[in-house]
Design a protein that fits this description.
The chain is α+β, with helices and mostly antiparallel strands. The protein has two domains: about 15-105 and about 290-345, no CATH class; about 120-285, no CATH class. It contains six helices and 13 strands. The chain has helices at about 30-35, 95, 120-140, 150-170, 200-205, 295-300; strands at about 35-50, 60-75, 80-90, 100-105, 185-190, 210-225, 230-250, 250-260, 265-270, 275-285, 305-310, 320-325, 345. The strands form three sheets. The chain has a six-stranded antiparallel β-sheet. It has a four-stranded antiparallel β-sheet with strand order 1-2-3-4. Helix 3 (about 120-140) packs across helix 4 (about 150-170).
Length: about 350
Amino acid sequence: MSSHPSENIPLALSTNWFLATPPTFPYPELRAHAPISSATYTWEYIERIDPDPSNLTTHPGVLSQDWTVIGAVQWELDMSITKIRVQWNTSDITNTLRSDIKHLPSSAHGPRGNTRELTREQLLLASQWYAPHILSFARSRLGTTVADGECWSLASAALQHTRGAAVREGHEPPQPSTGRVHGQLVLDWDVSSLVPAAGILQAADVRAGDVLELSDAHFRHIRVLLGGLASGEENVQVGEHTAIVDAVEGEKVSVVEQNARVEREVSVGAYDLGEMVKGRVRVFRPVGGNGTEKMSLNGLLLATDHFVFKLPPGLGVVYSGDWHAANPRETPDPEFQKPPPHTTL
């Protein structure tokens, strides 16, 4: 396998996958190249009449079609997209066949690989799309062991489950967990900052379905006994721990977690930031790979790219136009049979 899926893309043109109706996309060689998160395609044709040099008197021209197939795949590795375009003329497929490849890095990552900052509205939309599936998965696993039983594995598996559910609903899938990063950071709070715990969860809009990360945390709970005549102290220390937020109330975060109170088992728990005397809290909002836009793969297919098309010498036409890919269709749309704009004779 290549170091990155966008490298050494196998076009497999000799298999004629693009001639099938509908085209076979992603074709087997592309599927085998690297894990694909999602894929889509479109095709179009323009009819043309070329002069018949063998008999210009009785046969004014030969009817043929200029075909274009455009496909796009979104790679599971980093949610980047590769677009493939294949063009040919039906009168001479072998000699007119040509192809282009275009790679689009994930817009959700900056030059250092950090998640692009989303607006509050986009973060809310991400929660509405993904949180129900994350919570449903986590709650349904209570009392069981997920994967290797580590705390991180529950969050990772929940996001992986949500990726498939999101695609089925017509949304782009959320980014998978990478280490202890599970989307966009919405809260980063350390006790040593001296910022009070009161109100920080609400200010950051922490919601059910977010992923909580604790680092070197120490919680101290004072219990009042015998009607106030005595008190007891309960201390809980956490090195590194991952949990899924189930509810937020004041300074308290209820969670679904694994390998916490019950070893290597999914259970419920709670952490009160008001009782935290040491450590760091981070909360991540699972987000889509391309900025949480409806069907990001189709959205990027719809992005305008400028190409120059040159027809063989029949009509002697050279025209330029914008490549607009659309949603997959069973039959060619009449609108797609029109020549592109800016035609020059």
